[in-house]
Write a structure and sequence with these properties.
Structural class: alpha+beta
Strand content: 25-35%
Helix content: 10-25%
Mean pLDDT: 89
Low-confidence stretches: 12-22
Radius of gyration: 15 Å
Order of helices and strands: HHEEEEEEHEEEE
Number of helices: 3
Distance between the termini: 32 Å
Length: 139
């Protein structure tokens, strides 16, 4: 097993990593990027969260972030800002692949989804390889 992969696994096991990742109030919307081709988290991937204006269909930027070593981006949105509507997470996949010396068929990935009940918790992961991706609604 490579030293890089062992370091990734260590980051998942150590409790202080989990404590740091969970600092602050929990977001009702979470994401997790997984590089399924290499079996590692999609660390250091830039992303943007948008909400669509229902009257104009224009997208408004809510926040930007970068995934942590675990492939997560804590604190995407506060409970107060999380309302019903259509949202989009834009993932900068080309930059991510370039940073690890690879190319990708998809320069970016956008996941668009509808929130009907903002009192629920929503988890929107991105499972990614250089030539494919998938997502689902988790909790």
């Amino acid at each position: 097993m490579s030293a890089h992969r062992l370091q990734q696994l260590k980051g998942h096991i150590l409790p202080e990593n989990k404590i740091t990742a969970m600092a602050g109030p929990p977001s009702p919307l979470t994401t997790h990027v997984l590089n399924t081709a290499m079996g590692v988290p999609g660390a250091n991937m830039a992303l943007n969260l948008y909400r669509q204006d229902p009257s104009t269909d224009a997208w408004s930027l809510i926040t930007t972030g970068i995934t942590n070593d675990d492939g997560r981006c804590p604190g995407l949105i506060t409970k107060q800002m999380f309302t019903s509507g259509v949202y989009k997470i834009h993932f900068e996949t080309a930059q991510y692949w370039a940073s690890i010396g690879e190319t990708s068929f998809y320069p970016y990935v956008e996941i668009v989804f509808t929130i009907i009940d903002p009192s629920q918790k929503y988890h929107v992961p991105l499972l990614l390889s250089r030539f494919s991706y998938s997502t689902y609604r988790g909790s």
